[in-house]
Structure formats: C-alpha cells, structure tokens
Amino acid sequence: MFQLILITILTGVVGLGLGGLIGAQLGEISKKARAIILSFSAGTMIALICFELLHEAMESGIHTWLVALIVLVSAGIVVVLDYVVDSRAGHTDDFTACEDCDAKGMSPNKTNTKMRTKAVNKKRSEKLQLLVAGITTAAAIAIHNIPEGMSIGALYAQDGLSSALWVLLISIVIHNIPEGMTVAISLTTSGMPKWKAVGIAALSGVPTVIGAMIGYAMGSTGGSLGPAIALSFAAGTLTYVVFGEILPQSIKLYSSRKTAYAAIVGLAVGLVIIGSHMH
To answer: Along the 279 residues of the chain, how does pLDDT read in single tens digits?
Structure first.
C-alpha cells in the first residue's frame, strides 16, 4: 500500500508540480509542442485501455456485455462530472468572443470612446480573469485526476508494478506536465507568487492518490468479479479522459495530422511495452 501511495504521489502531485515549476520559471511552451505531447500520451493510454485493461477484464471470465456496460457507466459518470465542472466555470464548446461587436453602428468618436473604455476595463480585469482561470483549471484537473488514480489502483491490485502500470504512470506524467504549466502560467501572470502557483498546481494532483485508493480497494476484493469490475471501470473512465479531454484539447491547440502521427506513435510505444510484459 505504501508503494502505491508513493508512486501515485510521484505521478500526480510531483508530475503536476514539475509542470507548474517549468511554467513558472520558463513560461509557456508552444501550442504545437503541447498538442504533440498530449496526443502521444493519449496514444499510450489507448494501448493500455485496449490491450491491458479490457483484455484483463474479459480474461477474468465475466461476460463481455457486463464489461461493456461497466465501461459505458463509468464513462458516463466522468461525463457528468465534466459537465458539472464546465457549467460551474461557465465553459461551453461553442463559446465565441466578439471584441468589437459593441462598436458596430456607432459614430467614430463614440466608437473610439467605447474602445478606450473597453481597453481600460480589460486591463483592470485581466489579472482577475487569469486568477479565476488558473484556479478553475486546477479544480478541473483535480476532479479528472480521480479516475486516473482509480486506474492506477486497479492495475496495481491486479499485477503490482507491471509494465502495463508503468505505461499508465508515464503517460499520466507526460500529460500532467503541460497541465501543470497551464495552471502556473495563469496564476503567475495574474500576479500570484511563483511558489504559490507551483503549490496549487501540485495540490491538484492529490485526488490522484484518493482515486488510487478507491481503485485498489475495488481491485483487491475476493474472486474475479471485483478486479474485473475495477479494470472495466478504469477502462471506461480513461476512455472518456482520452477522447473527451486529451485529444480534443490537442486538436484545439494544433489542428494538424502531426497530432495524429504522435497518437499513433504513442499507441505503438505503449503496445510494445505491454507486449513485452505479456511475453
């Protein structure tokens, strides 16, 4: 149990904290680089879902339809959580901004006055907006880290420190770093001290440990049903994290076939590592 807690802290808390430290000290990496990193980690997670989590769940002897049902239910739970977080934060997929819409139909003098007023108001509120954005992002990351932690716990209960678990840990760290950078950059730009921004980024990884304990408890129950349910649940939650969060974010950052190539390479790398464990 101590080993599980330690590796989860290193993966979640330290991973996000490292990203926060990089963001606070060096600033933001390019959107292209972030997109490729996210796509690569998504590919490794897809390999893990298909060739380890679901494979192990179906090998346990429970019906395939039950595995599929648990995957749908667990993904649905994360969908609801995601919706709640986004609605509370005021985020929508179809949000559009029109900076100068108010100026339409006005005379030049009125337009200039309006634009100057908007510029002043924007400058005054910019730091507050960045602070709110950073805190909101950290909260969203914290909630989404719970299913990732559950996946860690479920795999650990099944095979201990297996190569499949290492694939999961590495892929989570890979996408935690740019997430931690995003939090820290928003907070430091708002005027928050760097050490506080890095601390908040790291704290958003704490729920990973909580999720790991839940996943381990589910996977450690007697018989084959408990571990199969835990693995199926982990597969469902990770599936939504990949296709509902990581890949869309990557595409928004950099819409290019290169992100697809990165995801395919990630899948191949994950498959090789998992395959070496199977043989």
So the answer is: 788 999 999 888 988 898 888 888 876 667 888 788 888 888 888 888 888 788 888 887 778 899 999 999 988 888 887 777 667 656 555 433 333 434 444 444 544 555 555 554 554 466 676 677 677 778 777 877 887 888 888 888 877 888 778 888 888 888 788 778 878 877 887 778 888 989 998 999 999 999 899 888 877 776 667 778 888 888 888 888 888 878 888 888 888 889 999 999 989 988 887 776 554
**How many other CB atoms sit within 10 Å of the CB of residue 99?**
9
Distance, first Cα to last Cα, the chain: 27
Cβ contact 19:181 at 8 Å: yes
Whether the pTM exceeds 0.85: the reply is: no
d(CA 185, CA 71): 35
Which residues are within 8 A (CB) of 50 and not within 5 positions of it... i.e. 6 or more apart? Answer: none
Per the CB < 8 A criterion, the answer to whether 56 and 271 are in contact is no
Long-range CB contacts for residues 171-174, cutoff 8 Å, separation at least 24 = 171/41, 171/44, 171/45, 171/48, 171/266, 171/270, 172/11, 172/12, 172/15, 172/41, 172/148, 172/208, 173/11, 173/15, 174/37, 174/40, 174/41, 174/44
Burial of 162 (0-12, 13-18, 19+ CB in 10 A): middle
Specify the residue for token string 């679901």: 54
Rounded Cα distance, 87 and 116, in Å = 32
Burial profile 201-214: b = 16 or more Cβ within 10 angstroms, e = fewer: bbbbbbbbbbbbbb
